[in-house]
Design a protein that fits this description.
Elements (H helix, E strand, L loop, with lengths): L3 E9 L6 H17 L4 E3 L17 H16 L7 E10 L2 E10 L2 E7 L11 H4 L9 E5 L2 H7 L3 E5 L2 E3 L4 E6 L9 H7 L4 E6 L8 H15 L2 E9 L7 E2 L3 E4 L2 E5 L8 E9 H9 L2 H7 L7 E3 L25 H20 L4 E4 L4 H22 L3 H11 L9 H8 E7 L5 H14 L2 E6 L1 H15 L12 H29 L7 E2 L5 H6 L20 H14 L4 H7 L18 H5 L3 H12 L5 H11 L6 H18 L34 H25 L1
Parallel strand pairs: 1-2, 1-11, 2-3, 8-16, 9-10, 10-11, 17-18, 17-20, 18-19
Antiparallel strand pairs: 1-15, 3-4, 4-5, 6-7, 8-9, 11-12, 11-13, 13-14
């Protein structure tokens, strides 16, 4: 009997409820796996229906169509002579489970339900599924008639079991189970399971990739064995981008690494590994072997099949590799760009419309489109026919082949500088310069006539004319006049997005892009229903600090020299009158805090779960060298007052790419009230009491020195 096995895992760009497309991508991945000699193929979590179906899981249609796709897979000649491991929802005894269905040659070998469901942050699996809680137990699952006719099976094993082939033993984990304190792979490995598979639906967060890789390598370092991880990739219909990173590891080393960001809808990894390497590795770890002698056994489903070949002596084995990580600014350049590509092609729009202000945020958004154009040209040059067909449909030209990212950007991105009497020539020049360097179709217009008309209506009705603070007006007048400008820009953005291509004799409409960063959203430093209101926002989950690093990266990587001027300029909304032609308003002055402070507040609020008092206590030590307790208290109070006053704005926040774990996204990630007692009387009194106590102690210490 042979000892070398060739295994395949994959990353698929599945789309929620796109059963036909999902089926074709699954079949293509199996076909590629077989062509490379693999005899086991692992796919992502819930790949048949797409991971992000959310409340569609409640619908019987989702279960029915998933079964129909499974039937098509069982019937296809492509799936013959290879163990296929696919993901789908399954109803067992009137309970819905998130399952792996493992089959071979038209026979279902095992249905393995997920045992630990992800139910934090963006995940809500307990809303739709029930975890299988009967460890190491299986039941009979009665197949529906459409499958009985194909498989000639009435029932199949359902539950927590492993597969025993002629030459090895295979066990399954599903996504979250890898992240739990006591993962199933621990006891499976101790029970002699040599190949562990993990089907994931894991989304991108900046700086997260290392955690996933560390978990896999550590699992096989401590216990030996082979570990296959498959993952979803791309945007499957909402704010998340699933970032691939499929991998194959053995005995603590990586043997195959999948891409984290790519426009390829189907990516298959294979590795040929020697089972004897597992056995010899495990044999010398005495502590592991002692634990193995006491472990409770798993039910084994016998499979009349081998993963290895009889004569494999001359078969070369895969060599270990070093995992290559992207820097955060590279992740920003690639992740949101791939998400934008999926959104554009799947929404069947003709491009994007971006209000370009000449500041860092809108410049970063423009750079993401330019990066996307680079990815498209690169994919087409490498022979990706799906990308070529998609871009031809987008530009409505059947013979078009993109070669130059700048030329492509001119076709699909329209930028617009919306000037007012409060705009400076410098921001106008910076916006125009960036548009020229990336090649976008650029428009310059003046919003003053529209603003004057709106304010004129108010004056006609009320007999009062509001003034800016610089002209003697009060704070309410000043803020209202700023908001009118901001909201007019939103109205014009949608008008030009709908009719800009029409005016040029081209077909289709444009998606409006927002460019409010995560820190400004957290504080509510934006006008409700202004240019932050858009179809999608690719930077809405990214901090100002990371955005500046990304823009610096684009300046060097894409040779966009005007970005240096944008980085050097102060951040400003330009909604108040200029002073001698110069900007008189800056974002940090308006907010009353720096972006660095705001980012720290955001991380403490969400990630550290800190309310006002806990945040004050944490920052006392963090800022002990720069701030007095009174100053710390004032900063914390100011943040929570502004945050709570503006929290209502999060209910209308534009859908944004999720990239940070302190995002204030009200849709699913950051569930909080939007009507607060903004005085925080009890919390602020606790802070005040602590400040007074510290001040008294400081005075006593000074008196003691005298």
């Amino acid at each position: 009997m042979g000892r070398k096995v060739t295994l395949a895992t994959c990353a698929l760009n599945q789309w929620a409820l796109d059963f036909e497309g999902n089926l074709q991508r699954i079949l293509k991945s199996i076909e590629i796996a077989k062509s490379r000699g693999a005899r086991y193929r692992l796919g992502p979590e819930l790949e048949i229906c797409g991971y992000g179906c959310w409340d569609h899981y409640y619908e019987s249609d989702t279960l029915l169509h998933s079964l129909q796709v499974l039937a098509a897979l069982l019937e296809s000649p492509v799936t013959q002579d290879i163990i296929c491991d696919v993901g789908m929802p399954v109803m067992h005894r009137n309970v819905r489970y998130n399952c792996r269905v493992i089959f071979l040659n038209r026979k279902i070998l095992l249905i393995r339900p997920k045992m630990a469901l992800a139910n934090e942050a963006n995940y809500r699996e307990l809303r739709w599924f029930t975890p299988w809680s009967r460890s190491r137990q299986i039941e009979e699952h009665f197949l529906p008639r459409m499958l009985q006719d194909l498989t000639k099976q009435d029932t199949v094993p359902f539950g927590d079991a492993v597969l025993a082939t002629w030459d090895t033993c295979i066990g399954s984990e599903v996504c979250e189970e890898l992240w739990t304190p006591h993962s199933p792979h621990v006891d499976m490995g101790l029970d002699g399971v040599e190949i562990i598979t993990n089907a994931s639906g894991s989304h991108h967060v900046l700086r997260k990739a290392h955690a996933r890789v560390d978990l896999v390598t550590m699992a096989t370092t401590k216990n030996g064995g082979i570990y296959l991880l498959a993952n979803q990739k791309g945007c499957d219909g909402d704010r998340l981008y699933y970032d691939g990173c499929a991998m194959i590891a053995m005995n603590g080393s990586i043997f195959a690494q999948g891409s984290q960001f790519s426009l390829d809808d189907v990516e298959v990894l294979t590795a040929t590994l020697d089972l004897e390497d597992i056995r010899s590795y495990r044999a010398e770890i005495s502590s592991r072997n002692l634990a193995a002698s006491r472990v409770s056994p798993y039910p084994r489903v016998k499979v009349d099949f081998a993963l290895s070949c009889h004569e494999d002596l001359l078969e070369p084995v895969s060599e270990p590799i070093e995992w290559k990580y992207h820097r955060p600014e590279e992740e920003i350049s690639l992740g949101p760009a791939c998400w934008l590509w999926d959104y554009l092609r799947r929404s069947q729009q003709a491009g994007f419309f971006l209000p370009l202000s000449g500041g860092v945020d809108s410049a970063a958004t423009a750079c993401l489109i330019y990066s996307m154009c680079h990815q498209v040209c690169k994919a087409v040059a490498s022979g990706n026919q799906e990308v070529l067909a998609d871009i031809r449909g987008i530009v409505d030209e059947s013979s078009y082949t993109p070669k130059d990212p700048r030329e492509l950007c001119g076709r699909i991105l329209t930028t617009c500088y919306m000037a007012s009497e409060n705009s400076s020539q410098e921001t106008c020049n910076r916006a125009r310069g960036l548009a020229q360097e990336i090649g976008s179709h650029h428009i310059r217009l003046n919003i003053d006539p529209a603003v004057q008309a709106i304010v004129g209506i108010f004056s006609l009705v009320t007999g009062r004319s509001p003034l800016f603070a610089a002209h003697g007006g009060g704070s309410r007048e000043n803020l209202a006049l700023q908001n009118v400008q901001a909201r007019i820009r939103m109205v014009l953005a949608y008008l030009f997005a709908q009719l800009s291509l029409w005016s040029r004799g081209a077909r289709g409409g444009l998606l409006v892009l927002g460019s409010a960063n995560v820190d400004e959203s957290l504080l509510g430093y934006l006008t409700k229903y202004d240019c932050s209101s858009a179809d999608i926002n690719p930077i809405g989950g990214i901090s100002k600090t990371d955005l500046r690093a990304f823009v610096q990266f684009c300046k060097e990587h894409f040779q966009l020299h005007v970005l240096q001027d944008i980085l050097s300029a102060p951040a400003t909304a330009e909604l108040e009158p200029l002073a001698n032609g110069q900007v008189s308003q800056t974002d940090e002055d308006d907010m009353g805090m720096t972006y660095t402070e705001l980012s720290l507040f955001g991380r403490l609020r969400k990630i550290a779960k800190a309310g006002p008092y806990s945040m004050f206590c944490r920052l006392l030590t963090t800022w002990k060298d720069t701030c007095t307790p009174r100053q710390v208290a004032d900063k914390v109070k100011q943040f929570f007052w502004k945050y709570s006053v503006n929290r209502h704005k999060m209910t209308t926040l534009t859908p944004a790419y999720h990239a940070e774990n302190y995002s204030p996204d009200d849709n699913r990630f950051d569930l909080r009230p939007f009507l607060y007692n903004t005085r925080w009387p009890w919390q602020f009194q606790c802070i005040e009491s602590q400040v007074l106590q510290l001040e008294r102690k400081a005075h006593q210490d000074l008196d003691g020195l005298d």
